[in-house]
Amino acid sequence: FTRDILDHRTKNNIRQFRHSRWCAQAMQEREIRLGFHYHGFVRIRDNSIVLKPFRFPDALLRSTLPMVAVRKCMSWGGYNDKTIIGNRLAFDAALRGSSEGYYLSPMVQRKHNLRNPEQLTKAVLDEAGVQAILDNEMLPFVDSRCGGGDGTPCLSQKWKDCHVSRPWFWRIRVCN
Fold it and tell me: Which domain of life is it from (predicted)?
């Protein structure tokens, strides 16, 4: 990668970390204001498409330990960070951890010799004692792009993101 590409990717990752942290803060403020706690959370990217009906896994909700599910592909030595679902006990680590690990905990970066956001995600969850389930079928969310000139969405290629097994909820093509 060129320096410009690396800088661009790093800026995008930092924006994602900040946005995830902001969402966690907004959710927590809502919990306080309304006097309840969410049982779990789903973090997906804004360009994700849901290919099959999604039901939050009961095993995550029933667990008495902090637990998340991430996809078992494109993990680059860590955990795939495109989609994360988890129980409330994993909330802080999963939604705030990457931002705080990047900005506030340089020891996490040095200790683990981190090279990408996937490795940061794994390090932050491991440091917080969060168990991870690696499963593609549990998470029917896939990155998409606007394909062609007509704005019709298409799925990211399999080498960029994992796809759940067919049949899918709707017909959509994979990007060229």
Answer: Eukaryota
Q: What is the pTM of this model?
A: 0.85
What is the C-alpha separation between 82 and 39, in angstroms, rounded?
21
User: Per residue in 82-92, pLDDT tens?
Assistant: 899 999 999 99
Rounded-to-integer distance, Cα 172 and Cα 92, Å:
34
Cβ atoms within 10 A of the Cβ of 116, count? 15
**Which value, in Å, is the radius of gyration of the alpha carbons in the chain?**
17
Distance CA 80, CA 93 (A): 15
Q: Where are the domains of the chain?
A: 3-44+63-138
Quote the CA–CA distance of 24 and 91 in Å, as a whole number: 8
